[in-house]
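Consider the tokenized backbone below.
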């Protein structure tokens, strides 16, 4: 079966991410995302196509391709009310991500913030240039050598938010906004599915997990990154400092990408593993001295939980002069 790991390799294949696509019109980007998702090893699936226009052409295509659809005209509805209904349909479909694909509605900040990091948009310009409408006309008018498209995470600001990827598209002599738009669309169709794949696979990728954990670890007082036996680690307390965390990328034949943190000892470690075997494991070698493996390459990691364990682990090794400060801060 596709994605199934070989027997003996205990790593579970990441489940396909569930994506809702919101459109307002033709839906050619939606179609590009949908057909890319038909590749057996595509890491996402489209579980819903929603629209604010029941006549949107993309809806009929999605339905014909067996994808659930939802449409609700926004006319006469308050923005928050319409957003809430769209969001409910997305949640009912069990979507974990939202891809806006020519969805010509400004979303309420509450909606956007609930999907922070999990909602992306495609925009037909090389952001930060030409936010809003008439992007191609503006690029031609400005005499730019290239137009292009951007895929970005959605934030409360219109066509803002961290850019995940861009493709420049040359502007030809005699281009009109229409001819240019048609060519940029080719680039959009290639870029969007690649960026969506990149986003949904991040939580399973060691490089991304390491960066995320490193950021949390280094936010602790006097923490420094230092390799230990070829694996990234973090310690505190200066020159003779002690390690409070290690990063394991399938180390010692373990099937996981994991963070090693210090527990109270073997009893606590055993209790954690028994209670949540999907989250904790006893690492080779380190387990003997009470280090626990916190599995990171799994769905739904709670980063506050990870942060909490990093801090706890830090406290067990940090010098008294540092923990005293933390204790004092906790009093408030
Ligand atoms: C696309 O060009 C997309 O980049 C643009 O609308 C078009 C939708 O086409 N989106 C925006 O302008 C958003 N600010 P499609 O319906 O064929 O995908």
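A designed sequence for it:
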């Amino acid at each position: 079966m596709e994605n199934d790991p070989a027997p003996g390799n205990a790593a579970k294949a990441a489940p396909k991410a569930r994506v809702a696509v919101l459109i307002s019109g033709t839906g050619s980007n939606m179609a590009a995302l949908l057909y890319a998702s038909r590749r057996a090893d595509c890491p996402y699936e489209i579980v819903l196509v929603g629209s604010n226009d029941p006549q949107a052409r993309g809806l009929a295509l999605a339905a014909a391709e067996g994808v659930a659809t939802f449409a609700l005209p926004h006319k006469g509805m308050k923005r928050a009310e319409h957003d809430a209904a769209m969001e409910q349909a997305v949640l009912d479909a069990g979507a974990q991500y939202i891809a806006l694909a020519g969805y010509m509605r400004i979303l309420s900040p509450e909606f956007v913030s609930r999907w922070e990091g999990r909602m992306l948009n495609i925009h037909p310009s090389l952001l930060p240039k030409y936010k809003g409408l008439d992007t191609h006309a503006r690029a031609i008018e400005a005499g730019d050598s290239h137009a292009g498209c951007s895929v970005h995470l959605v934030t409360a600001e219109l066509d803002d938010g961290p850019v995940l990827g861009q493709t420049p598209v040359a502007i030809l002599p005699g281009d009109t906004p229409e001819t240019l738009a048609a060519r940029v669309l080719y680039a959009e169709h290639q870029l969007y599915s690649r960026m969506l794949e990149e986003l949904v696979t991040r939580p399973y990728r060691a490089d991304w997990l390491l960066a995320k954990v490193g950021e949390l670890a280094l936010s602790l007082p006097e923490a420094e990154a230092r390799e230990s036996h070829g694996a990234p680690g973090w310690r505190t307390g200066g020159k003779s400092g002690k390690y409070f965390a290690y990063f394991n990328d399938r180390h010692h034949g373990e099937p996981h990408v994991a963070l090693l943190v210090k527990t109270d000892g073997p009893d606590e470690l055993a209790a954690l593993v028994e209670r949540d075997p999907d989250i904790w494991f006893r690492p080779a070698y380190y387990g003997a001295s009470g280090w626990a493996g916190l599995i990171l390459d799994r769905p739904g990691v709670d980063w506050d939980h990870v942060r909490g364990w990093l801090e706890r682990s830090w406290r067990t090794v940090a010098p008294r002069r540092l923990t005293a400060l933390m204790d004092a801060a906790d009093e408030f």
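Confidence is low (pLDDT under 50) at residues 1-11.
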